[in-house]
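Here is one chain, start to finish.
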Amino acid sequence: MKKIAFVIGHTEKDKGAFSTTLNKSEWDLFKDIKELEEIGDIIVHDKNISSYKARQENTAKHKTKDYDIVFELHFNAANGKAQGCEALYYKGSFEGMSIASDFCKIWSEKTGIKIRGAKSLDVGGRGYEFVQSTKGVAVLLEPFFGDNIEDCQKWSSEKFIETLKELLK
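Its structure:
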């Protein structure tokens, strides 16, 4: 059986994007989903590393080295109009691409959220340090836009857990 980890995006100090509709930041939303522990281990970034990229690289190299698949959990934010789910993976990782594509497909079927798709990350892309530095397969999940009311209305932590369980069976 594969060893799974979930990295909560951002930190208690730097909570990431904030959804006024859900009244939660990325950090607060995902750290509160206790059912993730039924699937894998929960890992948090070192809040004392101020650079986002350095934090991601540190977590990938030191905290996730013993895992087969590592997900970093986020939600998107843009202009209130953008919507949909995307999953980001290391350029050239066939398994990462497959997991990212399957996640988007299953999540969209369960929620009706538009598929933006699986996207490969190259040098300089947001999240690149994490997916590139992780020993196992790394996928950064962004299941919805936190500043899009319609996406937020479709968000469900229960469906998120169901999606992950189906994805990893």
